[in-house]
Design brief:
This protein is mainly alpha-helical. It folds into two domains: 172 residues, no CATH class; 457 residues, no CATH class. Helices cover 57% and strands 5% of the residues. A four-stranded mixed β-sheet has the order 1-3-2-4, sandwiched between helices. A two-stranded antiparallel sheet has the order 5-6. Strand 5 and strand 6 form a beta hairpin. The relative contact order is 0.11.
């Protein structure tokens, strides 16, 4: 009897266990040991078992120890902390994926009542031989090629792509207590033993998600300035709609007009010509060139570590189908040409050929005043970069921008930033403004010569161009540069220590751009003499065929050198690089001549399309602000970028749209008021009566101020 009772009792216990297992399917998870949990969750590329190691700061040691103990107690906040870490090896490394960003949002979402967390990116580099190869496809001797046993192994596979490792590091996202410093991270990494395999912690950048953000002095000034401008725009709109008296001619009404968003917007979006004798085709040229710059920056400025398949980058930048997009630097050449063209057109128009009406100092001063206020406003806007958004790689670049602008902002005010390392200057893309300003200063001398004695001035200008053709050729020959600006020769552009390569430094200087700028000046002098004329259809198509041939030559003449197989011939490079600038200048001159003489056929009609007028008028603001839009778009990403063509196209289109939206807003709030104020001062100062020739006509928006604003 007792045996039956025991059997029934044991049977009931089994049934209860079975019911419990059925009713509570997660019950077995409670039996996972701490050792198993630690192996599954805790990372191996940082040593966290340092509770008794006094090389770490005491607060960091205690917080990590507390977090590990909380993990063993299955606390949610601790699991969030360690679960936000990247895994040991990023998935897809064999195709060039070298970043695992972990989970940024989960890391910074931890309740600070439990622990104050911060997200960091560890930038790990592997040992590479010196010197840095000039071409991305160069075979780098990182392994002994005689070891046949390595054939078909991951080592041989990686060695074939090793030239990329000078520029692409291993990024690992981690989540740590706020108390752990950069020094703590470095020491913890060094004690893992990974360094013996050639890896080193190149840098680490941390982000607390804005939990402790405070306004600095520069940001306070920026808020005051932008708040004042925005307030003036709102007040002006209210005044114009509800208060103003049509018969009122007071200074208050004038000031309200300066800031009026309604009047300024109406002028900008107007598709009608605002000036007689306007060169309508230049609107289309400006818009297309600006779009080309944006596309080029999207392709070139995207950090390689944010791409999934970086091994495809060398093949993409050497592919013929991508060369029209990657050669966006020709768009800057176009703006140099337009700058010279309109400088001479407007100067000769307002001086009526009388050199006594030309005043050199006001000529330079008005140019400076026309460009500088907007540049200052953009630098102030840049001071807010760190708080405009957030993301895994945000702090890597926002801190750099903040540091650069705090040290080198004054370079921009003197327009000398093109003489320094591009990675050290504030708002690197403004190198163009510096080069253009320097060319503008030089051009005043030749304009005065042209006004005093046309024949001597023209001879001097042409001689100046020829001199710098030879100067540019000599520099290219001596430095042994490649025959063009090919991104596959990355060693000439960017060095791994974030220094500008020699070819990039050469491109930033005015020497090579003198050719096309002063060709524009010569064209502007001759342009008033061109009148509409009838040309036979076959002749028109012949001229346009020359335009197309010149374009194709400039884009593709470097094709034989793209893959690095053909050795660089310094003499050939010295001929081809300046020649490409001459051909590009002639192509633009031919386009302008065909459009002015009414022989533009469908291309001229397209370039003169009225829709391009409003888009052209905001070019300067778009150029200033579009890198900030790109920065926000790229570095607020939570995932890596795909290299599919449809994704690239989507990014480019969205960048173009948002750049023009932000550029329009920046024009209304910042550019138009300053331009209107300068125009008012110029027209109401008796000692400035003779300076109205200047090509920087400041009314907003004025089609006459069509000179380069990028």
């Amino acid at each position: 009897m007792s045996g039956k009772i025991l059997f029934v009792f044991l049977g009931c216990l089994f049934c209860f266990d079975l019911i419990a297992a059925i009713d509570y399917p997660w019950q077995p998870l409670l039996k996972i040991s701490n050792n198993t949990l630690a192996k599954a969750i805790l990372p191996r590329y940082l040593n966290l078992n340092l509770i008794n190691d006094y090389h770490l700061s005491s607060k960091c040691r205690m917080d990590i120890h507390r977090a590990i103990n909380a993990l063993y107690e299955r606390k949610t906040w601790s699991y969030k902390l360690f679960d936000s870490w990247a895994r040991s090896i990023p998935s897809g490394m064999m195709v060039g994926t070298f970043a695992d960003l972990g989970d940024f949002d989960q890391c910074i979402s931890i309740d600070p009542n439990h622990i104050v967390s911060k997200y960091c990116i560890m930038d790990l580099s592997i040992a590479m031989p010196k010197p840095v190869p000039l071409h991305l496809k160069t075979h780098v001797q990182v392994l002994n090629d005689n070891e046949t046993k390595l054939n078909g192994t991951i080592f041989n596979h990686m060695a074939d792509k090793s030239s990329l490792f000078y520029y692409v590091h291993l990024w690992m996202g981690i989540c740590l207590p706020e108390s752990c410093s950069q020094k703590d991270i470095q020491y913890s990494f060094n004690t893992t033993g990974i360094t013996q395999y050639g890896f080193r912690l190149h840098s680490s950048s941390c982000n607390n998600g804005g939990k402790k953000w405070k306004l600095n002095i520069l940001q306070i000034i920026s808020l005051i300035v932008f708040g004042s401008l925005l307030s003036m725009n709102v007040i002006s709109a209210i005044y114009e709609n509800f208060i103003q008296n049509e018969n009122d001619s007071s200074l208050i009404k004038t000031i309200m007009k300066w800031f009026s968003p309604i009047q300024n917007t109406n002028k900008i979006i107007s598709t009608k010509s605002l000036k007689q004798g306007e060169l309508s085709c230049l609107h289309g040229i400006r818009f297309i060139s600006m779009v080309w710059i944006i596309i080029g920056h999207v392709m070139v400025l995207s950090p390689r570590n944010l791409h999934r398949r970086t091994f495809e980058i060398p093949f993409k930048i050497t592919g013929l189908q991508f060369q029209p997009l990657l050669n966006g630097f020709y768009s800057t050449q176009t703006f140099f040409y337009l700058s010279g063209l309109l400088t001479s057109i407007v100067t000769f128009k307002h001086t009526k050929g009388d050199y006594r009406k030309f005043q050199y100092i006001p000529f330079i001063l008005m140019r400076y005043l026309r460009l500088t206020p907007q540049l200052i406003m953009y630098m102030l806007l840049d001071s807010f970069t760190s708080v405009l958004s957030n993301g895994p790689s945000w702090s890597l670049y926002s801190k750099r921008i903040t540091y650069q602008c705090s040290k080198t902002w004054w370079y921009n005010l003197f327009y000398i930033q093109n003489w320094f390392n591009l990675f050290d200057i504030c708002s690197g893309h403004t190198w163009f403004l510096a080069t253009d300003m320097q060319l503008h200063i030089i051009s005043g001398i030749f304009i005065l010569l042209l006004l005093r004695n046309y024949r001597i001035g023209m001879m001097a200008t042409k001689f100046f161009i020829i001199v710098f053709i030879f100067v540019s050729a000599a520099i290219v020959y001596i430095k042994k540069f490649p025959p063009g600006l090919m991104l596959s020769y990355s060693g000439y552009f960017v060095l791994p220590n974030e220094k500008s390569g020699e070819l990039l430094l050469f491109f930033l200087k005015p020497w090579i751009h003198i050719i096309i700028f002063f060709t524009g000046i010569i064209t502007g002098v001759h342009l008033p003499k061109w009148s509409p004329k009838t040309i036979k259809t076959n002749v028109k198509f012949f001229y346009w065929s020359l335009v197309v041939f010149g374009y194709l030559f400039c884009i593709y003449y470097t094709a034989p050198w793209l893959n690095g197989r053909l050795p660089i011939n310094p003499l050939l490079s010295a001929i081809l690089l300046p020649l490409s600038r001459i051909i590009w200048a002639l192509v633009l001159t031919l386009i302008v001549w065909l459009c002015v003489t009414n022989n533009g056929i469908f291309i001229g009609r397209f370039l003169s399309w009225s829709l391009f007028r409003p888009l052209s008028r905001i070019t300067y603001s778009v150029y200033l602000t579009h890198p900030a839009i790109l920065f926000i778009c790229l570095h607020s990403r939570r995932n890596l970028m795909s290299d599919r063509e449809i994704d690239d196209l989507s990014l480019m289109v969205s960048m173009i749209i948002f750049s023009y939206i932000v550029g329009f807003i920046f024009t209304i709030i910042c550019e138009c008021p300053f331009a209107n104020i300068i125009d008012y001062i110029r027209n109401h100062r008796s000692d400035m009566k003779n300076t109205k020739f200047n090509n920087n006509k400041s009314k907003c928006p004025d089609d006459q101020r069509m000179e380069s604003k990028v």
